[in-house]
Fold:
Amino acid sequence: MHATDRRPGTEWIRFGPKLGRWGLTSVLFWILLAAGFSAGASGFLAPRSSASEESPAWAAPAKRLDVAGLSEEEASLARLENARMRLLEAEQNAAAATFNLTRARTRRYPRGEGLTALKQRQAEWQLEQREAEKDFARFLDQARREGVGAGRLLPFDELAEEIESRNVRR
Structure:
């Protein structure tokens, strides 16, 4: 049999393996494409740069509770709540200042006086946070000495424990 001698109906035999390869290749392509889209949708392929992170918002000062005219126990709780609000604001502002400084260092902009101002602002808010933590602990101890019930101090005790554990890690 020569290459020119072909039996009728044998053309598909020669193309069968080629079609099988193309079919398998196209199926694998679509499977991988679908897997890529699903991975991208779940955030696997999302950019992980500092520019994509949301900047923490600066805390607006909350209205403080008035202590005048309250009983001794209620006044202690009001002072403690005011100290807690100050602490939460200082923590949020310190986080925002740290984020802004980190982003500026990553982007290498601003430089000079602008970067120095960001560093100074971060240092000021970290100092404010440490002072707020000390004041909170002082007001909590004062409330305990004044005989405020343990049940009423429970949320404040949990916050104090969180502060202590955070300071131990520093």
